[in-house]
């Protein structure tokens, strides 16, 4: 009889553990998802006016599937995103995941710079637990606001066992994208986020998560970077190339103390001749110059039309300019050796 009672107890404990809800933290930073306007059809609105508790209250079903905890990291439009918020966010995510307080983290964020924050976290957080970025293209008071369903889907991805080890992900419009690959491609459309070089890694339809691919570049636990060892980021500027260009912005960046320059060149990363010479002079002055492209997809190759060896340039592989800037800033916290930095661009 005693053994039978023990067996029942163990079965009940096992069932309880099997159905124990995961703990998911929602860290809010602001953005359109936390924005509000004067009416459902008003296209003007103010970002970052809705607090994290209201965002959670708008999606009551997430409390049925997870233990939800919310924190307000910032409340800004993501066009205002800055290094201070990045460090605060990265340190908090790292603390929550490495301490065991959270099984996954969802970060609500504006869409303008979501891809940059996602890639930054992808490189500096040391955990293989799911980290999911989510936003909205329509503010919380808009007709057919997309924020609530996006949050519901993001929580489902963050608690999905198959999401472990995939690094930081962006969940928008029923799609799952890897942080390194995703970019915003349309100013207003709800399907704005795409991964032009590789495609999405999965889908999530009303909480039904399916993964199809894995990110292959180094990230999170395998990344060369660790947020606990980084105290500040050096200045890196992006300079956009165009026909009939001039060297003025290159020279100004060097004068104002830029440690690195990402040149968003034409085609396969080609600068205008006078800008090319100015970039070469920048290298001689100790600035690390990485050639990138303004095209939006594809690889910027070493030694194409530009003799990179002659000028001392690096190439960004297939990172877009804004993500190349993130990686170069982090690389410069460790080294100015160009061969080592180039290797980081080929592996991260």
TrEMBL record:
Residues 1-20 form the signal peptide. GO terms for biological process: asparagine metabolic process. GO terms for molecular function: asparaginase activity. CDD domains: L-asparaginase_II (cd08964). Keywords: Hydrolase, Signal. It comes from the Bacteria. Pfam families: Asparaginase (PF00710), Asparaginase_C (PF17763). The active site is at residues 32, 111. Substrate binds at residues 78, 111-112. Residues 24-216 form the L-asparaginase N-terminal domain. Gene3D superfamilies: 3.40.50.40, L-asparaginase, N-terminal domain. Residues 235-345 form the Asparaginase/glutaminase C-terminal domain. Belongs to the asparaginase 1 family. NCBIfam families: asnASE_II (TIGR00520). This is L-asparagine amidohydrolase. The lineage of its organism: Bacteria, Pseudomonadati, Campylobacterota, Epsilonproteobacteria, Campylobacterales. The gene is ansA.
């Amino acid at each position: 009889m005693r053994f039978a009672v023990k067996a029942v107890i163990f079965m009940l404990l096992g069932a309880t553990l099997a159905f124990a809800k995961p703990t998911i933290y929602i860290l809010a930073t602001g953005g359109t998802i936390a924005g509000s306007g004067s009416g459902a059809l008003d296209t003007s609105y103010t970002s970052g006016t809705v607090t994290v508790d209201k965002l959670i209250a708008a999606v009551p079903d997430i409390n049925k599937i997870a233990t939800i905890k919310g924190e307000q990291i910032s409340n800004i439009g993501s066009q205002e995103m800055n290094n201070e918020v990045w460090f605060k966010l990265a340190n908090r995510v790292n603390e929550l995941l490495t301490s065991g307080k959270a099984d996954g983290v969802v970060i609500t964020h504006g869409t303008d710079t979501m891809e940059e924050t996602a890639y930054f976290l992808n490189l500096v957080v040391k955990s293989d637990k799911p980290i999911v970025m989510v936003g909205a293209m329509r503010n919380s008071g808009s007709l057919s606001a997309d924020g609530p369903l996006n949050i519901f889907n993001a929580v489902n991805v963050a608690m999905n066992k198959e999401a472990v080890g995939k690094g930081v992900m962006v969940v928008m419009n029923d799609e799952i994208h890897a942080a390194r690959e995703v970019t915003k491609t349309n100013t207003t459309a709800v399907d704005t986020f795409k991964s032009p070089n590789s495609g999405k890694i999965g889908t999530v339809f009303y909480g039904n998560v399916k993964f199809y691919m894995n990110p292959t570049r180094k990230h999170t636990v395998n990344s060369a970077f660790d947020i606990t060892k980084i105290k500040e980021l050096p200045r890196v500027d992006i300079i956009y190339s165009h026909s009939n260009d001039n060297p003025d912005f290159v020279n100004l960046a060097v004068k104002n103390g830029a440690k690195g320059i990402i040149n968003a060149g034409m085609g396969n990363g080609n600068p205008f001749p006078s800008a090319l010479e100015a970039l070469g002079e920048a290298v001689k002055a100790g600035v690390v110059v990485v050639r990138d492209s303004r095209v939006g997809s594809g690889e910027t190759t070493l030694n194409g039309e530009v003799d990179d060896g002659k000028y001392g340039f690096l190439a960004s592989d297939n990172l877009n300019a804004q993500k190349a800037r993130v990686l170069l800033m982090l690389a410069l916290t460790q080294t100015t050796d160009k061969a080592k930095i180039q290797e980081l661009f080929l592996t991260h």
